[in-house]
Every structure is written in C-alpha cells, then in structure tokens.
Amino acid sequence: MQKKLLKRKIIDKIRVGVFISNEGFGHSVRQKTIIKEFLKIKPKSEFTVFNYKRLSFLKEYFGNRINYVSYPDTLSTIKNTNGELDITLTKKILERWPGKSKNAIKFLKKKKFIFDVIISDLVPEAFRYAKTENIPSFGVARFTWDWFFYNSKLKSLNSLKLISRDLKSSNKIYFPTFTKGKILSNHFFLTKKTNLILNKNLFKENTFDFAKSKNKYKCLIMDNGTKTNSELIKKTIVYLKKIKYIDFYIAVDNYSNNLKNYIAEQENLIPVSGLKNMHRLIEYVDFLVARGGFNTLTEILIFKKPALLIDEKNNPEIRQNLLQMNNLGYSAIMKQSSFKSKFPNRINYFLKKEMTNIKNKLNVKNFQSNGAKQIVKDIIKIYEKS
C-alpha cells in the first residue's frame, strides 16, 4: 500500500517577528541580510523587528517596508574602559534577566502581535514567548548565551537553566561555519550548520579616495558595535601618526570634535564616520586591526583580508574566535596591552613575519556567504509543511 504524499501548501505572505540582540552590531547586520533574502523569496511577507540600539541602521535600509518595535535590552554584557568584560556588572545583568524576560513577555502578550514565524538572533525569551503562542521559532547564532556565561565563570544557575530551556523551545537554531563544536553539541538536536552569512553588496559603494595612499599600506582600525576598543585606539593615535609608511583609517564616531579634527590634520590618519563606511572599507584596505567579533571574521574570510585581531579578557566568544582563526592561519592575535607605545613594534612584526603567510592561506580558500539564503529557504519549507 502506497503512502500518501503530504502536499506542501505554498503561502505568499508570511508574518515574521525578528528579535535582535542589542549586543554589538553583527546581529543586526546578519538579520538585515536574512530579511532582505526573505523578501526576495516571499515579497509579500510582513516583518516586525524588535530591538532598540540598531533600529535606525535597519530603518535606513528598509524604511517603511518593515515595522519596528523598541524592545528592552534584556540580556547583554558590560565592558570596562580597557575593553574587557566587566564580570561584576555583567553578572548583575544575568541575575536580573529572569525577571526582565518575564516582563518582556508580558509586554509582547499585551500588544497582541500576530506572527506566523519568529526568528531570534539570539534573544532567549523570544523562544519562550513563541512556545506560549504556538508559533514556530528559529534561532540564528554564532554562540549561545548559556555557553557564553558558563565559560565566563558567570554561573547564575537559575538564569543559565532558564536560558537553556528557552533555547530548547525553538524549532531549530542555525549556526554558520566555524561555530565551536561544544556549542553545537549543547543543543545537538536543534542545530543546523550553514555557510557564512554576508551580503557582499551591503557595504559595496566606496566613497573614499585612495590616491594619497599610493605606495603605502592601507590599514583600517575598526571599532565595533560594542565600542569595546574606543579608549584603547584613542590612546594609540599619538603613536600611529609616527608610522608614516601606513595610512590608518580610524573609526571616530565615539570621539570628541577636537580629537576628530586632530586626526584629520595628520598626514597618515584618515577619520571614518559611521559603521557603514567603516565596513565598506574592508574590501579596499590591505589589512585590519579589529576586535574579533564574528561579523568581522566573516568579512575577513569572504574578502580575504589579513588582520590583527584584538584579544578581549574574560570574553569566551572573542577568545574562541581568535584561537580558531589563528590556528588555521587566517589571522594574527594582538593583545590589548599591545596598544599605545607597543603598537608600532607589533605592526612591524605583523607586516614582516605574518601578513604574507595569512594572505596566502586566505587566497587558497573559497568561503561561501549564502548562509542567509539557506536559512530562509529552510524556514519557509518547515513553515509551509506545518
């Protein structure tokens, strides 16, 4: 007796709620790419984004095409002025999270949102909310918060148990290439690996004139969405201006007007305003000095750019990213203590001993960046079969 084949219903419009962590910039960049891909495949779909720090970044691209909800920062980390994870303050946030997440869910229920699918990157309580409303939910992540806090020695047991339970409420969690095996095994039955997630055209347009950098190295010194290294970079500027054979493109959004003007007056220092412009430059410079967040790693791999990645004390995600990249020969590691007076020597060593080998390693690899398309197709397939 033949089994009947279940017909897959084709749905033109899917109502999607997207919860984006306020931690850093990479979560929003990743979801921007996923939403864009989703609208290509299902152009009639409706999106509502929950976030508050990066809504202006998303509005600049999508305008009124999607909806925006200012959503509280329920779970995040705090950095000190040295760019290190502040264990004491971050532990307080973790301990308060169960109560804050409960209040966030009350807010969501009160608003009576109607969704067919929820995507979370990676706001844990979004999965709990989805389960209570019987909505299929999908995570997108490089790491999970339970793994992060456990490996940061922040073991608030009740919070970690609840985070883990929330994650297990999801239908599936997508992890891009290079995700640590231990993270995947923690949630083994829910995980699906994808290619890297990057829209190469997202920051494509170049607005910089590189004529003055002819016959010189071009280095982008990146700050990031968490502004972790702003103070360290600021203290290093007096040493950068002495390295005349390199033009340094420096993110200046977090600096005073006086310091911005001082940078602009230097022969080999070029101020860069706006996260968008900073990321646009990656494709055009010779090498980077940057924090090793996963979005930056993705751009390094796709655009094949040698980098000095900055270690970050007490941060297991950054530490894992750096070790992985360094062990594979795709980048070099720079300690935060190498800023200021030690910076010229570290740069010299990188250019003479490390950069060529890294470039050769990257050039023979062909990393795929269509992870967003893989995720969207899988979500639609699962939803239409439900």
The secondary structure category is alpha/beta
- What topology, given as strand order, has the largest sheet? 3-2-1-4-5-6-7
The count of domains is 2
Contiguous runs where pLDDT drops below 50 for at least 5 residues: 1-5
Strand content: 15-25%
**What is the CATH homologous superfamily assignment of the largest domain?**
Glycogen Phosphorylase B
Quick take:
This protein is an alpha/beta fold. The protein has helices spanning 26-41, 55-62, 87-111, 124-132, 145-151, 157-168, 181-186, 230-240, 257-265, 275-281, 294-303, 316-327, 343-363, 371-385; strands at residues 15-20, 46-51, 67-70, 117-121, 137-140, 172-176, 191-194, 217-221, 246-251, 269-272, 287-291, 307-310, 332-334. The chain has 2 domains: 15-199 and 369-385, Glycogen Phosphorylase B (Rossmann fold, 3-Layer(aba) Sandwich); 211-363, Glycogen Phosphorylase B (Rossmann fold, 3-Layer(aba) Sandwich), CATH 3.40.50.2000.
